[in-house]
Amino acid sequence: EKGGFEHFMLKEIHEQPKAYRDTMRGRIDESGKKVVLPELKLTKEQIKGISKIQIIACGTAYHAGLVGRQAIESLVRIPVETDVASEYRYRSPIVTPDTLVIVVSQSGETADTLAALREAQSHGAHVLAITNVVGSSIARDADDVIATLAGPEIAVASTKAYTSQLIAFYLLSLYLAEVRGTQTQDEVARIIAAMQALPEQLENMLAKPDAIKAYAEQISKHEHLFFIGRGLDYAVVQEGSLKLKEISYIHSEAYAAGELKHGTLALIEEGIPVIALATQDAVLEKTVSNIKEVSARGADIMAITHEEHVVSLLKSVNQAFAIPKTLPLLTPALSVVPLQLLSYYASLARGNDVDKPRNLAKSVTVE
Ligand code: M6R
Questions:
Q1: Among 154, 273, 292, 298, which one is most buried in terms of CB atoms within 10 A?
Q2: What residue owns the CA closest to ligand 1's atom 10?
Q3: Prediction pTM value
Q4: Model pLDDT, residue 363
């Protein structure tokens, strides 16, 4: 049942290229220039009238929403709010009938997410669910569903569901952009082509896990570490940090790299591991100055970046891993994978129960 893998988590990490292909299949028209989402009940008129979008989810699904926000705001220019579902209802959210609410849930059974969906509907909002389980409570109650076709996810730590949610957000953003006329056809075609290349790029990465495995063994001896990044890298390190805590039980914090000096830098001392995600070229220079801030305090830094930056980064970091290059917006679909592998191998090195971490359940049906 684990298909030759030692754990479900590793199997599911390796199923991601297939999950990408399956989630895209039938949703890109033959010309390669257009996303089609025939399942949507949301009409083009409704789409043209959307004034804001709220994305609501828990845990890893929330982290996918952070990337989703960036995709929608940059491609469609509609303002997007993101909330963790357990907070949403209690902040008296401003929801109007022209608000599109997107709930994200692998299982479709998360109690807080379901309650947030109902709250949004009670204000007349149209609720679209991105879920991996089409027969779930959330799929049943939502006004619209975009199914991620990741296949069953068994490991408590979510991997292929997260990355398939990213694909769903990219598809949805491109669709909304087309309807609202915010991107040219050439730009849409360029993004689609880059998306279609992701599965193979991921396969190439998955074929070479050794360097990450060795690094995971190194950090498995530590009790505390930091992740830093800016922009989409910040969104991805939040997911990396959650994954690491969840299954390796190593305490970590994910920080927006520029925010460190507002307090957290006090915790950086000799030898503390810092994992810097530096894949977003537009903010690379700024990230490098933040890397230098921690390096000056003796941190042991590992950077994940693109090949072309490895040599220069090695002047300030101890190790650097290169990931394949795609468009900046799509990079999370690749850059999260070394972080998934890092948690997996760190958990393994610590002798933990990788697929069933302590205190946690796969589906959280209590508020
Ligand atoms: O089924 P859901 O996507 O609604 O679950 C939400 C979270 O409970 C879930 O993503 C959790 O954070 C994962 N175990 C993280 O790996």
A1: 273
A2: 60
A3: 0.98
A4: 87
